[in-house]
Write a structure and sequence with these properties.
Shape of chain A: globular
Strand content of chain A: 35-45%
Number of domains of chain A: 1
Structural class of chain A: alpha+beta
Number of strands of chain B: 9
Distance between the termini of chain B: 67 Å
Helix content of chain B: 55-70%
CATH superfamily of chain A: Ferrous iron transport protein A (FeoA)
Order of helices and strands of chain A: EEHEEEHE
Number of helices of chain A: 2
Number of helices of chain B: 30
Distance between the termini of chain A: 10 Å
Radius of gyration of chain B: 29 Å
Strand order of the largest sheet of chain A: 1-6-2-3-4-5
Largest sheet of chain A: 6 strands, antiparallel
Number of domains of chain B: 3
Strand content of chain B: 5-15%
Strand order of the largest sheet of chain B: 2-3-1-4-5-7
Structural class of chain B: alpha/beta
CATH topology of chain A: SH3 type barrels
Oligomer: heterodimer
Largest sheet of chain B: 6 strands, mixed
Shape of chain B: elongated
């Protein structure tokens, strides 16, 4: 239950990466930067422009288009 | 001599460690992949020298961006005796991903666990002995910015080089994949491909193009090729492999890395709330840039510039007097005082200013703000069909377009990269600064900082506009995705800031002594020949060249031969423009006289159009050469040289014509 794209998460909400439905290149890049299956992601900022998320204590800015394709299992 | 390669993620403090190891003139920045060039240094330990090569920061050793390929090629083909893998302790899991790849490549690795102080602040602790055993590589904790642990690191590095290391990490990719890897490995083991077959097998399953090519070139029988062919379903297992690597990492860090239940709030989060704010972010960025130019102007020009100019003037007169006392011919005295000291000096007097500008840029880089600038610019860039990261090479271009263009290597999309290269020359480099300053001193002495800000902003505006046009015409395609790390804010270290400044300023001074000297000397020769003419007069060769070009600039309001010669010399080097203007406007050697001559020859309006021409027209020879190198194309280099000239001319003409119409003549 509760699979939804990262972009639907508000600030403070978090979840685990279920899968990424972006292009092969972008998907691999995201995986390698730590957005691999099961990684815990917390949204810090999601209003205008790229999202800012926290991933293993590390801040990453992520464009809205991509954030729409990272499917999250909300916790 | 043994060779050590430094490898690590962007922002892992790799370059800082490099500086700490070698003490060489390198610089560190917070944008991804600041190390675009291959940097080398040396250190001495127990009477032996070791070579250190600083490789570009990467998250992985795939074949993604040029940086990854550079790093990987060096590890595979450069034959380093040891790889020091710099790992950010606060972000150890993600950083170890690269480590697992290094270990699988079968190279000798030691881990420098950096930023231990920040990890402590965040209450992260480690069981390093245990982690080292599980990882199968020595780990040395360090704080590169404060040179802590360096001695221990060197000790470990040197002893690792000398002894045969027998560690071997084995990452299990699950039964199915392990089986596949073993089968491929068996086929490859009989071939002399030159790389560990286990690594090759994994890379084949990942669908790595480089390895696919490599294997195809070896003499495999059709049957063997068939056996490998399932790996050609191009990366069918790519993501699974990444997941398994992370699984391995989580397994080994689970019992050796301890994080607090609730992450410690750090200052970075509070600052980011403001500087990345949806409405405030962009104005704050604008204010920071304005502040930077204002400060450059106030500190560099008003406090230091004048005294340097005076000193050069006195030096020139003294040299001429000395030569005349030695019975040197009058022409030699004139050459030395006017041609050399006057010309080169006209450039050198702006050194204080450039020092300040580079130091301020260094502070921006070192603090981590640069990544935020890219973040807030993403919206603007996106509306133009580009992404925020494209803005970083543009900011670097403010210092010098050559590193600016090289910094585009971190852009993964070919479209972004090409556009970023083509528009970089509009980012006004440090060498153009002296030109504006002379004109500001002559016409806008009370609004120097503001005028500079406007000039730089116009450059950005034109760059963005051209970016949009190129995106829609020459390089159509989707807007690429934006992924970027926002590193924590760090207090800039004086050492890094000064080093960054010195790298650039020493380049500037070297050019003053070589290229500019050569340009100024040849111009002096052109200015006094043929014999008997008034030196620097319209009858001289120089004057005739100028007269020939000048009509082009008549519609822009500065159609005189002196201005034309100045712009002409700027194509060799922008630093030469002021020196040349100094010579042709009555052969002056001192700043104040040059300003007076400019004041007489231009009006505020023609000064504005000339500054705009200077800002936008054909970049210097070094920049064009860099474009040629980076695009591997003569066509793009020539294209840039010509289209920038055209844009500069059109804008200058536009400003002059509209200005005259409005009565600003």
């Amino acid at each position: 239950m509760d699979h939804l794209p990262l972009i639907k998460l508000g600030p403070g909400e978090s979840g685990r990466v279920k899968r990424i439905a972006a292009g092969a290149h972008a998907t691999k890049k995201l995986y390698e930067m730590g957005f691999n299956t099961g990684a815990l992601v917390q949204v810090l900022k999601n209003d205008r422009g790229p999202l800012i998320v926290s991933l293993a204590g590390n801040k990453i800015a992520l464009g809205r288009g991509l954030a729409d394709r990272v499917i999250i299992l909300k916790s | 001599m043994y060779t050590i390669a430094l490898v690590g993620n962007p922002n892992s403090g790799k370059t800082t460690l490099f500086n700490a190891l070698t003490g060489s003139n390198q610089h560190v920045g917070n944008w991804p992949g600041v190390t675009v060039e291959r940097k080398e240094g040396k250190f001495r330990f127990k009477d032996q020298f070791y070579k250190v090569v600083d490789l570009p920061g990467t998250y992985s050793l795939g074949a993604f961006s040029e940086d990854e390929i550079i790093a990987r090629d060096f590890i595979l083909k450069g034959d380093p005796d040891l790889v020091i893998n710099v790992v950010d302790a606060t972000n150890i899991e993600r950083n170890l991903y690269l480590t697992t790849q290094l270990l699988e490549m079968g190279v000798k690795v030691i881990v420098a666990l950096n930023m231990m102080d920040e990890a402590e602040q965040r209450k992260i602790s480690f069981d390093l002995a245990n982690l080292s055993v599980k990882l199968g590589a020595p780990i040395v904790p360090v704080v590169a910015s404060r040179r802590k642990g360096i001695e221990q690191l060197l000790e470990t590095a040197v002893s690792s080089i000398e002894k045969q290391l027998d560690y071997k990490v084995f990452i299990s990719y699950g039964r199915e994949l392990d089986g596949k890897i073993a089968r491929i490995e068996k086929v490859l083991a009989q071939k002399e491909v030159g790389y560990p077959s286990h690594w090759l097998a994994i890379k084949l399953l990942e669908g790595d193009e480089y390895v696919l090519d490599l294997v195809s070139e070896s003499d495999l029988s059709p049957r063997e090729l068939e056996l490998l062919s399932f790996s050609r379903q191009n990366g069918a297992y790519e993501l699974e492999l990444v997941d398994k690597r992370y699984e391995f990492i989580n397994q080994i860090t689970g019992s050796t890395v301890f994080r607090p239940q609730k992450p410690v709030q750090i200052k970075t989060d509070k600052i980011d709330k403001i500087v990345t704010h949806k409405y405030l972010g962009l104005p704050i960025f604008g204010l920071i840039m304005l502040g930077m130019f204002q400060l450059t102007f106030v500190l560099g020009e008003d406090l230091l510039g004048d005294s340097v100019a005076d000193a050069i003037g006195i030096f020139g007169e003294y040299a001429e007097a000395l030569l005349l006392n030695l019975n040197a011919p009058a022409w030699l005295g004139s050459f030395v005082a006017n041609g050399v000291i006057g010309g080169v000096g006209a450039v050198v007097e702006f050194v204080p200013l450039i020092v300040i500008l580079y130091m301020l840029m260094g502070v921006l880089e070192d603090s981590g703000y640069m990544a935020r600038a890219a973040y807030v610019m993403d919206n603007v860039m996106r509306s133009l069909g580009l992404q925020g990261k494209t803005f970083i090479p543009m900011i670097v271009g403010f210092g010098c377009n050559v590193p600016g263009i090289m910094a585009t290597r971190t852009l993964e999309s070919k479209k972004d990269r090409m556009i970023a290269i083509l528009i970089n020359p509009f980012m006004s480099c440090g060498a153009k600064l002296p030109i504006y300053l002379v004109f500001i001193a002559a016409f806008f002495p009370n609004n120097g900082g503001l005028v500079l800000f406007l000039v730089y902003s116009l450059g950005i505006l034109i760059a963005l506009l051209m970016g949009k046009i190129f995106g829609e015409t020459l390089f159509p395609g989707e807007v690429s995705h934006f992924i970027m790390e926002l590193p924590p804010y760090r207090k800039p270290t004086l050492r890094n800031v000064v080093r960054n400044m010195w790298d650039n300023v020493s380049g500037f001074l070297t050019r003053a002594g070589t290229t500019i000297f050569a340009v100024v000397s040849s111009l002096w020769v052109l200015a006094v020949l043929p014999g008997g003419v008034q030196p620097y007069g319209p009858e001289s060769f120089l004057g005739r060249i100028g007269l020939l070009i000048a009509p082009i600039f008549r519609p822009a309001g500065f159609g005189n031969w002196q201005a034309a010669v100045g712009l002409f010399s700027g194509i060799a080097a922008k630093e030469a423009v002021v020196a040349t203007l100094g010579m042709v406007y009555a052969g002056v050697e001192e700043g104040a006289e040059l300003v007076a001559a400019i004041k007489a020859a231009f009006t505020p309006l023609t000064a504005a159009s000339f500054m705009i021409m200077t800002l936008l027209y054909t970049p210097c020879a070094a920049t064009i050469a860099t474009i040629r190198k980076e695009t591997r194309s003569n066509v793009w280099a020539l294209f840039t040289a010509l289209y920038t000239f055209l844009i500069g001319w059109v804008m200058a003409v536009l400003v002059y014509q509209v200005g005259s119409f409005l009565g600003f003549a």
